[in-house]
Design brief:
Layout lengths: L1 E5 L6 E2 L4 E9 L13 E7 L12 E5 L12 E6 L7 E8 L22 H12 L10 H4 L12 H11 L2 E5 L5 E5 L4 E3 L7 E14 L4 E5 L4 E5 L9 H11 L3 E11 L9 E4 L2 E4 L2 E7 L2 E8 L7 H6 L5 E10 L4 E10 L2 E9 L4 E8 L3 E9 L3 E10 L2 E10 L2 E8 L2 E9 L3 E5 L4 E5 L4 E3 L7 E4 L2 E5 L2 E4 L2 E4 L2 E5 L10
Parallel strand pairs: 10-15, 11-13
Antiparallel strand pairs: 1-2, 1-5, 3-4, 3-17, 4-7, 5-6, 6-7, 8-9, 11-12, 11-14, 14-18, 15-16, 17-18, 19-20, 20-21, 21-22, 22-23, 23-24, 24-25, 25-26, 26-27, 27-28, 28-29, 29-30, 31-32, 32-35, 33-34
């Protein structure tokens, strides 16, 4: 183990003799075996009796975490994240490796247009330039490196992009001892453990399937004979079964145990996603905590595996039936945000969505069963608002709703695609329109037009009650077959025919 401190561009100075204690830890995200981009955290206690370590919060530390000393100055850099306000005789620092430099939004300046989309390889080159950290792409497949990136969200951290790219290739990202970002497969190395204290292990796990399920699209490879390795639902790079096939080819049939609280000495070459074997049990490593005492170290390994699907779900319920989630999609190219909430079980489906574009906002709420389906939709643009309620029952489709423009309001009822009735209101007229487009009633400032009133029907105007019979229009003049008007006010009535 070696520790150096570097101030600016000055030559690093070794401070290994000042180290009181050092603890290092790193871990994957919970429930994720692929697509992780962990950072190693180091808690470093230093002897500062001489006071030579003042103002070191802005310095870079070069640390070799191996027990055996390597020749030369370590290359792996660690950055101070937490330092005391006062420098006392004992100085405690909290350090992280340079993975944290990717904790910034990916402000890509590449061109994201049809026939001009950048490849993932070019995105990685750009991220390397933005962070100043070299990226070793040798651990990624050509299939992934050559894939076109047809979307970009400049609010998402580069570290998220790194994780999605790693996941698409069936790997995880990490900072290696050369201070480069690299990609590593699961089960790259197995380490035999000779001595350990008591530890807990899970049941044996065998991988048989890889799936991407965002609640709308299901892309899957393999079968349900074992466990499913799920791709992050937010990983929009995964848009083809080609990628799940490639990941499955790497890990199909891999068998291992989860582990908790396995403690042993040394083993400083163990990486996250490696396996360790004790007494014939091969256990995956998802968390490493190491404490150094002089030149020796004690390590605690954990690998609590909680894949998304337990046996009962895999064998009894199909993926397309067990969706209950909220999905958010951001498309910077199309300037579009979509939020979808789903609750789907068997034949009952409830789906709501909001889509925001630069020129419109659309909201939909769906409720579907085996017998009926209803949908309410509201769409708003800069000059119109429309609201429709659609019901499908026994194969018959009915739709009703208002449509508001800047100068008119329309109410329509449709049967399938045919408009059966419509009411139109604007500043000039109120009009009731039939399915053939003809006017049944039209009211303007100086005219009231009513077509084909039913014979013998009563209707009321103000305080008067009128009964109308057919009228005949001929050469611009009107004759009246029958007419009667009854007006009742204060006991008086009049009539005529």
């Amino acid at each position: 183990m070696k520790v150096y401190m570097k101030k600016g561009i000055n030559t690093p100075v070794e401070i290994t003799d000042l180290v009181i204690s050092i603890r290092a830890s790193s871990s994957f995200q919970e429930d994720r075996l692929l697509g992780n981009a962990p950072s190693v955290m180091v808690d470093l206690d230093l002897n500062n009796i001489s006071g030579v370590l003042s103002n070191c919060a802005g310095n870079t530390f070069l640390i070799d975490l191996h027990e055996a000393d390597l020749n030369g100055i370590p290359k792996q850099e660690f950055i101070v994240q937490d330092a005391p306000e006062r420098y006392t005789k004992k100085l405690s620092l909290n350090l992280y490796d340079v993975m944290i430099k990717f904790n910034q939004p990916y402000k890509s300046t590449l061109t994201y247009k049809k026939d001009m989309y950048p490849t993932i390889s070019k995105q990685l080159d750009e991220m390397a330039a933005l962070t100043g950290i070299n990226i070793d792409k040798s651990g990624l497949s050509s299939l992934v490196l050559n894939k076109q990136a047809q979307w970009i969200d400049t609010t998402i951290l580069m570290r998220e992009y790194i994780g999605w790219i790693a996941e698409l290739s069936g790997t995880n990202a990490y900072i290696n001892s050369d201070n480069k970002l690299a990609f590593r497969k699961l089960f790259t190395a197995n380490h035999e453990i000779d001595f350990t204290s008591d530890f807990d292990k899970t049941e044996q796990i065998t991988l048989s399937r890889v799936a991407y399920d965002d609640g709308v699209n299901l892309i899957a490879s393999g079968d349900n004979s074992g466990k499913t390795l799920y791709i992050d639902a937010n990983n929009s790079y995964c848009d083809s079964q080609t990628y799940t096939d490639a990941i499955l080819a790497k890990y199909k049939g891999q068998t291992f145990y989860g582990v908790s609280g396995l403690k042993t000495f040394g083993k400083d070459t163990v990486h996250l996603s490696d396996t360790v074997t004790y007494d014939g049990y091969k256990c995956i490593v998802l968390s490493i905590k190491r404490k150094y005492a002089g030149m020796q170290s004690v390590v605690e390994l954990d690998g609590r595996v909680a894949l998304k699907n337990v046996d009962s779900v895999v064998t009894k319920i199909d993926d397309t039936v067990r969706i209950k989630r909220v999905l958010t999609t951001v498309d910077q190219v199309e300037s579009k945000l979509q939020i979808v909430a789903q609750d789907i079980e068997s034949s009952n489906r409830k789906i709501s969505a909001i889509e925001v574009k630069a020129d419109s906002i659309t909201q939909t709420v769906n409720d579907m069963t085996e017998k009926y389906a209803t949908k309410a939709e509201l769409e708003q643009t800069s000059n119109s608002i429309s609201a429709t309620v659609t019901q499908e029952l026994d194969g018959k489709l009915n739709k009703f709703g208002p449509y508001l423009e800047h100068d008119a309001i329309h109410f329509k009822r449709t049967d399938g695609t045919i408009t059966k009735k419509e009411v139109s209101i604007n500043e000039e007229k109120i009009e009731f329109i039939r399915s053939d487009g003809s006017s049944a009633i039209k009211i303007t400032d100086n005219e009231s037009y009513m077509d084909y009133l039913k014979v013998g029907e009563w209707f009321t105007i103000g305080g008067g009650r009128q009964q109308s019979y057919p009228m005949i229009e001929w050469d611009g003049s009107t004759t009246q077959d029958a007419w009667s008007l009854f007006y009742s006010a204060g006991g008086n009535s009049t009539g005529g025919s």
